[in-house]
């Protein structure tokens, strides 16, 4: 919406580890997923920042949130981080 | 002991009841008597309850009903000279009696809440509104908020109770509303309520007041008590608001909105706990909704004026806690979109809207003050920009926009005038609204995001003055538009703003975006020197445009972030030079800039010949876009340092990405730059491969994150964010690979990603993938995923026939 990540970038990201092929529309879906993930991350970070009464989101907010989010995602996903 | 007290209170109550001959249903009296006489008169109570249409009531509802009835009984003794405190204690005692008894009774008899509520409804209207309502309500407030709690909870959670329960709750609220209809003007005043309780003797006002108070109290107290419940309460409150809307129409709405606004403001300023919290809950729930609206370009429907007012107003306040500064900006999206509708309906609702506007205006002014305070934290032009704009001070903007085109100033002035006009009335030209409406929606959202991004980026550059001023021009321009729009509290006002902003956006949109991206790119690329290489290289090598070329020469030298300031100064001088000079000016600029650079960039300069095509192309495209837009664009392009553009161009540094980037750019430019680009692409690839391959650009992550947070984001988060994204992508790739392997496929397909999203919880039964696609993805991506049928029975993309 704001900026578009070139599809090739997404493809390169997905092919980084696995030498697997990526379908046509999967790039867009991955982009959607990325957006959603960032969205949830941003929401959580914002909540956390508000807890500290700061209008600005700082790095430690995001860091603390990421741990929770990664754990949640890992729960849902097969991979672990 | 409690029993003793209960007995005493029961006796007293009974006496009062006997003394007070109120026309109440015998059921109630006998029931109350039975209750009073023997706390354990469960049998009788059950009989009473059974008598009146036994329906399966939940224990809580039964409890509530019984309590209310008891209250009616106890409070039916107006002549009883019991002090309010005593009465309260009595009622409390009664309550205590009732609570355990009723609870046990209910559990034993399994009386449904519907039955209880019905009984209450039957009893309440029968009894004099004055006396009984007050105590009833009082009881309902406090303890029976427990029951109301229970009732609320079930009402909110359909899964917990049957639909009938919902109706009972609705009936209750309706009854309350009906009662409150008598005195809609009554303001929530607990002390007055208590006072009236004391003067309960036939005081219609008191009763009515209590009614009103009850409606608000019941809504308020539950909130306070159910605050812990959070979600259910919020829903109930929303529902009640909906009901109230029907009843009290505008008055209530105005008050509510005002309260919400006040509370939000207070929240922003760290205000009331309870009320603000309540509002927060509502706002949070609404924030989600509004966010959904904001993110997606879906149309916003505004059925009627009141709804518009409510929605628009609430939208205004729905995003409060995020930031006082960005409050106006964030909310303006929906406001602008609904502005047209609201404006059209303005005529009828003008007065109310004006009232709201004034209220909002006041609040906004307060917010502006708050924003000013917040802006100090940012210590950046961005903050100043926002504050100044909100404060209708174009001067600060102009200061920031020193070099900005006159058009920008003009727009500022226009916005100011419009703001003034808006504050007074809502005489925004409907034509303007209609004209700009459509174009506005997308532009606004994009612009908003851009502005916010730009604002955030501007914050980062705060320390680096010049650069900020350079880029802040476009930023401020955007901010002006957006803030102008946001400043208007009502649709009409917003429309005016929107118009203004829209016009500005139309002309500035394209350039702003590239400018922003370029600037953002520069910021993001600051971390990676490698990417810088490609950027400056491209700029230096390209000679398509004089300005770009000259500017491009600048970036190569000052790559490191520390030199950004220098770069800015250099770029600015370069731009000023570039404006007039042509390609020939490149060498002298380079010479000028290089000495100013602290860090040696010989390597970079050596890479000059090896330039990525994308930056050059981007510059070209950007310049073309700018020139196409007009003076403003030209000035912007001139002002914006080349290295910024270089950075932006350098964003998709991936050598693989460059061709795609080229495609994304305007095709007209591509055609011209194709030849020049190719050799550079080759060189860029070589250089690109040397640098790391993180993939996702920092600016992209930054912009998306900022947009989603709707608040200011410090720059510190970006390294963290980048790492998070990398790890996320790794996990993503692994999972997708596993899914594809599970499907015995070697290619990651859409289904795999969809399954992944389902696992992650993004896709649920209630949130299909297509909705998400519509919500988040840009058109290009969307077209890939959702088949679009065009004329001639031609579907894009071609549906796969498996």
Can you give a write-up of this model?
The complex is a heterodimer of chains A (81) and B (802). Chain A is mainly α and 81 residues long. Chain A has a domain at 28-81: Histone, subunit A (Orthogonal Bundle). Chain A has three helices and two strands. Mean pLDDT of chain A is 71; it is low at 77-81. Chain B is mainly α and 802 residues long. Chain B has a domain at 715-785: Histone, subunit A, CATH 1.10.20.10. In chain B, strands 3-4 form a two-stranded antiparallel ribbon. About 68% of the residues of chain B have low confidence. The chains are: A mainly alpha (81), B mainly alpha (802). The interface between A and B is large, with 66 and 88 residues. Chain B: Its main location: nucleus.
Question: How would the blueprint of this fold be written?
Answer:
The complex is a heterodimer of chains A (81) and B (802).
Chain A: H1 7-15, E1 21-22, H2 26-51, E2 56-57, H3 59-76
Chain B: H1 2-19, H2 26-37, H3 42-51, H4 59-75, H5 84-109, H6 113-126, H7 129-141, H8 144-156, H9 163-181, H10 190-198, H11 204-226, H12 231-268, H13 274-295, H14 305-318, H15 324-344, H16 346-378, H17 381-390, H18 394-400, H19 406-424, H20 430-460, H21 465-487, H22 491-527, H23 529-541, H24 546-553, H25 564-580, H26 586-596, H27 602-606, H28 613-629, H29 631-639, H30 642-650, H31 657-664, H32 667-690, H33 698-709, E1 712-713, H34 717-742, E2 747-748, H35 750-760, H36 769-776, H37 779-785, E3 788-790, E4 794-796
Antiparallel strand pairs in B: 3-4
Helix pairs in contact in B: 1-2, 1-5, 2-3, 2-4, 3-5, 4-5, 4-6, 4-7, 4-8, 6-9, 7-11, 8-9, 8-11, 8-12, 9-11, 9-12, 10-11, 11-12, 12-13, 12-14, 12-16, 13-14, 14-15, 14-16, 15-16, 15-20, 15-21, 15-22, 16-17, 17-18, 17-20, 17-21, 19-21, 19-22, 20-21, 20-22, 20-33, 21-22, 21-25, 22-23, ...
GO molecular function, one term (chain A): protein heterodimerization activity
Family (chain A): Belongs to the CENP-W/WIP1 family.
Keywords (chain A): Centromere, Chromosome, Kinetochore, Nucleus
């Amino acid at each position: 919406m704001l900026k578009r990540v070139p599809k090739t970038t997404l493809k390169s990201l997905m092919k980084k580890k696995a030498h697997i092929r990526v379908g046509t529309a999967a790039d867009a879906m991955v982009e959607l997923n990325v957006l959603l993930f960032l969205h949830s991350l941003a929401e959580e970070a914002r909540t956390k920042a508000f807890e500290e009464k700061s209008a600005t989101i700082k790095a430690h907010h995001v860091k603390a949130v990421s741990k929770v989010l990664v754990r949640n995602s890992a729960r849902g996903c097969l991979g672990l981080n | 002991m409690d029993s003793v007290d209960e007995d005493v209170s029961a006796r007293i109550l009974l006496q009062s009841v006997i003394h007070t001959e109120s026309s109440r249903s015998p059921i109630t009296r006998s029931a109350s008597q039975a209750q009073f006489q023997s706390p354990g008169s469960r049998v009788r109570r059950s009989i009473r309850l059974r008598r009146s249409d036994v329906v399966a009531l939940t224990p809580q509802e039964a409890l509530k009903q019984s309590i209310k009835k008891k209250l009616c009984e106890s409070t039916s003794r107006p002549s009883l000279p019991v002090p309010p405190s005593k009465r309260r204690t009595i009622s409390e005692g009664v309550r205590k009696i009732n609570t355990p008894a009723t609870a046990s009774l209910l559990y034993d008899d399994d009386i449904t809440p519907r039955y209880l509520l019905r009984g209450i409804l039957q009893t309440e209207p029968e009894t004099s509104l004055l006396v009984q309502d007050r105590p009833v309500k009082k009881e309902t407030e406090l303890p029976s908020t427990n029951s109301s709690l229970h009732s609320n909870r079930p009402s909110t959670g359909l899964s917990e109770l049957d639909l009938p329960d919902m109706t009972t709750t609705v009936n209750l609220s309706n009854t309350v509303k009906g009662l409150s209809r008598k005195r809609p003007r009554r303001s929530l005043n607990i002390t007055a309520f208590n006072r009236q309780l004391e003067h309960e003797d036939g005081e219609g006002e008191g009763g009515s007041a209590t009614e009103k108070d009850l409606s608000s109290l019941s809504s308020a107290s539950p909130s306070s008590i159910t605050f812990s419940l959070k979600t259910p309460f919020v829903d109930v409150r929303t529902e009640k608001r909906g009901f109230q809307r029907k009843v009290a129409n505008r008055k209530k709405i105005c008050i509510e909105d005002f309260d919400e606004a006040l509370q939000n403001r207070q929240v922003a300023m760290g205000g009331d706990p309870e009320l603000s919290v309540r509002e927060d809950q509502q706002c949070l729930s609404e924030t989600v909704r509004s966010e959904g609206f904001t993110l997606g370009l879906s149309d916003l429907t505004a059925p009627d004026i009141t709804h518009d007012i409510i929605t628009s107003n609430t939208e205004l306040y729905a995003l409060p806690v995020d930031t006082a500064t960005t409050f106006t900006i964030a909310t303006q999206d929906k406001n602008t979109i609904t502005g047209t509708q609201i404006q059209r309906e303005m005529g009828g609702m003008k007065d109310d809207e004006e009232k709201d506007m004034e209220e909002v205006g006041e609040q906004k002014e307060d917010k502006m003050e708050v924003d000013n305070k917040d802006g100090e934290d940012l210590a950046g032009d961005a903050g100043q920009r926002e504050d100044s704009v909100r404060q209708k001070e174009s001067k600060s903007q102009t200061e920031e926009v020193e070099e900005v085109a006159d058009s920008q100033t003009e727009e500022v002035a226009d916005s100011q005038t419009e703001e003034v006009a808006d504050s007074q009335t809502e005489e925004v030209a409907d034509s303007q609204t209609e004209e700009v409406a459509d174009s506005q929606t997308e532009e606004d959202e994009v612009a908003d995001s851009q502005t916010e991004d730009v604002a955030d980026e501007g914050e980062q550059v705060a320390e680096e003055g010049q650069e900020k001023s350079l880029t802040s021009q476009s930023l401020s321009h955007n901010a002006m538009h957006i803030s102008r729009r946001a400043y208007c509290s009502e649709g009409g006002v917003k429309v005016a703003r929107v118009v203004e902003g829209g016009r500005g956006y139309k002309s500035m949109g394209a350039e702003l975006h590239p400018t922003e991206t370029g600037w953002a790119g520069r910021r993001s690329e600051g971390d990676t020197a490698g990417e810088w290489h490609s950027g400056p290289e491209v700029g230096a090598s390209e000679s398509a445009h004089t300005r770009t070329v000259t500017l491009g020469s600048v970036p190569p030298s000052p790559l490191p972030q520390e030199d950004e300031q220098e770069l800015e100064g250099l770029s600015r001088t370069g731009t000023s030079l570039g404006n007039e000079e042509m390609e020939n000016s490149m060498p002298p600029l380079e010479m000028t800039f290089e000495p100013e650079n602290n860090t040696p960039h010989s390597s970079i300069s050596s890479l000059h010949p090896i330039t990525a095509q994308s930056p050059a192309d981007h510059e070209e495209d950007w310049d073309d876009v700018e020139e196409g837009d007009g003076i403003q664009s030209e000035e912007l392009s001139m002002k914006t340092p080349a290295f910024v553009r270089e950075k932006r161009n350098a964003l998709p540094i991936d050598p693989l990405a460059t061709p795609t980037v080229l495609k994304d750019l305007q095709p007209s430019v591509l055609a011209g730059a194709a030849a020049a680009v190719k050799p550079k692409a080759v060189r860029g690839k070589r250089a690109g491969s040397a640098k790391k391959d993180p993939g996702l650009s920092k600016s992209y992550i930054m912009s998306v994150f900022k947009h989603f947070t709707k608040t200011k984001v410090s720059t510190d988060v970006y390294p963290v964010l980048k790492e998070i994204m990398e790890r996320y992508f790794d996990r993503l790739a692994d999972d997708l690979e596993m899914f594809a392997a599970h499907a015995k496929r070697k290619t990651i397909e859409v289904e795999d990603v969809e399954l992944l999203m389902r696992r992650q919880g993004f896709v649920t039964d209630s949130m299909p993938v297509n909705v998400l696609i519509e919500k988040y993805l840009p058109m290009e991506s969307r077209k890939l995923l959702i088949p679009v049928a065009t004329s001639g029975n031609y579907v894009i993309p071609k549906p796969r026939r498996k």
